[in-house]
Amino acid sequence: MTLAAGTRLGPYEILAPLGAGGMGEVYRARDGRVDRAVALKVLPEEFFESEEKRVRFGREAKLLASLNHPGIATLYSFEEIPGSPGSLTRHLLVMELIEGETLRARLAGGVPPLKKLFAWAAQIADALAKAHESGIVHRDLKPENVMVTKESTVKILDFGLAKLTGPDAASGGQTQSPTVSAFTEAGVVLGTTVYMSPEQARGEPLDFRSDQFSFGSILYEMITGRRAFPRPSSPETMAAIIRDEPELLATAAPAAPVPLRWIVERCLAKDPDERYASTRDLARDLARLRDGASDLLTSGGTRAAGVRRAPRWAVPAVAAALAAGALFAFLATRRPPAGPPIWRPLTFRRGTIGGARFAPDGKTVVYAAAWQGGAAQLFTTRLDSREATALPLPSANLASVSGKGVLAIVLPREGVPVIAEVSLAGGAPRELVEAGTFSLPFAPAVADWPPSGEGLAVVRAGQLEFPAGKVLVPGSPADPVRGVRFSPDGRRIAFIRGGDGRHTLCVADLSGKVTILCAGLDIVTSLAWHPTTGEIWFSGRERNSRFGVIEIQAVSLTGKRRVVARAPTLLIVEDIAYDGGVLLRSDDWPTTMRCLPPGATREVDLSWLDFSSGADLSSDGRDLLFTEGGAGEGASGGVYVRKTDGSAPPVRLGDGENARGLSPDRKWVVQVWPDRLLLLPVGAGETRTIRDEGLEYRSAAWFPDGKRLLVQGRSGGKLSRLYVRDIAAGPPRPLTTDGFGFDALSPDGTFVVAGNGGQKLLIPVAGGEPRVLPGVGSDDYILNIDSTGRSLFAARSGLPLRIERIDLASGKRALWKEIALSDPTGVDDIQSAQITPDGTCYCYTFMRSLSRLYYVEGLR
Description:
By secondary structure, the chain is mainly β.
């Protein structure tokens, strides 16, 4: 220290030294003009060796002085005090004088109790958020630069000074140490180095996320009592920060609350993109912990390992209620242990489960289920109970639960299901808008409440609307939106897009700007945001995955993906609580193929692997074309042909789940890909490829002569139409205008039954006017045209499956056969059916969905 007590620098009287370091000397002083005690930092003159540096310093100091926050020590002014003749001008920073101790001194007394830790951390984060929102980065955050007052409030010192005094401030280069006390010079360097971010250690440009890393290092030390990267020298410390991970908090401080661990781990991510996108979000997360724990933790409690067990506690999850101004107790009284995840079953009956969500209290679970073949109902259960209560509501699937306890449900209605709202406390549902689907095991959420609980995002007609009625993300039948989940802060909506094994996972902001996070997915069934990591968890399978099972994956907003869990069964993520507890559905989806072969009186089970599905039946009923698409075949799928009497194992012809027809001579199978048609030989021979430039293929069927194909396709983004494609000659000849999809081709190949909107039409292949078929509705699934060409076989979805013959001339309907299952549990429909033209043989496929709902702790 070079200035003695009583020395005057302009209006300032030096009272006592406070500290010194690489950024100057600090004194307690009195401003005689206003009789105010201040902290006076006398800066080294080398910082001002040029007029350019002096002007820049003054400009930046004014910006720092504009910061106004109770957690930031105020910078009053930057002043130049001329010296006596022949002496240098003094450059001073006049700052608020903080009475108290540094955080470093407080930590020397041991790990603070959780209540204080939460309070201090939340205040620091809030102050950082304020500065970052003003475009100011600290760049040298460490315990020495945080003061704790006698009232236990915190103040951050030296904001932005590292930038002002660094050797290359404009480029954000490596900083010098600010003022410290009670450290040797070696300690000063190490003290600064310990809290650097990886990008700072590499000398790269810095932004606000560098401060988040430094704060994460401080928070780690506050929790564990030791540094995140303890190394014996500064170079080794910098190397560890760049390449090593700190000891996991789960082992370093096992009693630390899990949400706190995740906040620290997110701050300490090596990649800045994996930290918080906004420091304000970090501050909110810590404020939630502080507010929720304040009345449950004692001020003298400690988390030191071996002292005593931390109390069981709960924290309100406020993400869904901030805009509404209400807090909801969300964090259950659990502490996930270190080690493998713990799975706790919540359901025990046999059947299918639909949507499942945490209620606002975080301990109640609401879910939809259809047990023992009954209709879908809504149930509630508690995490600590084996019992479930059926809600007194109509049959429904669950889409969302708001922070105010309002359910968004899907009611089955004739034609199009309806989205309705109803309070969890009771009452009758109020219908809102039409939905797209009701199916329990497959449908991603068609509606979701924002965290505020105001307005509803819905998926309708393949488009994402928010609020309902206003299209946020357009869609189309060829590229529909299929799911919707709000981010915890309500600023983004995640959704699934696409179909037919070509799915993408996307995020849209509230202006409708869409970002694709991952593509190339064969299946995506569900979405859930992780409230602390900011990742989107989903259940999916990549198109080229060697695993047939659906995995739980996580993707960050930067597109970084990882596998969270993989199991022999299908894992469907439903919801994630603020404490990291996960609602997972474990599903088994076996399919069954049954067939009545020629001359038989009893059906034969022809199921092969785990996802057998009939595709075509030869005209004499002796051969069945089918596909496999489950775990047995993996994501590539498989095409098979087998005898319907089961006398021989099936023959595998190739990959894929898109086989459409067996040729009349049973020598070829047509397989449909978007850019080509493949003819797979049933016996000896080579695969043949058909391509038609600009045509996207959707389906195909054989003409009786075996030389032509009836093709459904589209070009130029238009709706599909029908074509006749000569296999040898080509190109395809248009048979219809746009907007047609075919149902069946007559056994003699002279006409096609095709759909166009809500109508079914008979279209002559040789040319002529189509005619509308009487008595045939848009919801009729056409199985075949009988051998006489005068009637057709049709069915409508549901159980039992009623197959009727419809006269093509009059539309008169007559029941041909009713297919019922002795055990309908988990089955809501017959997936597909095939009938020979003479009606003597048939095959059908159904899937049984058997589910169990779990609460999983410790899944990361």
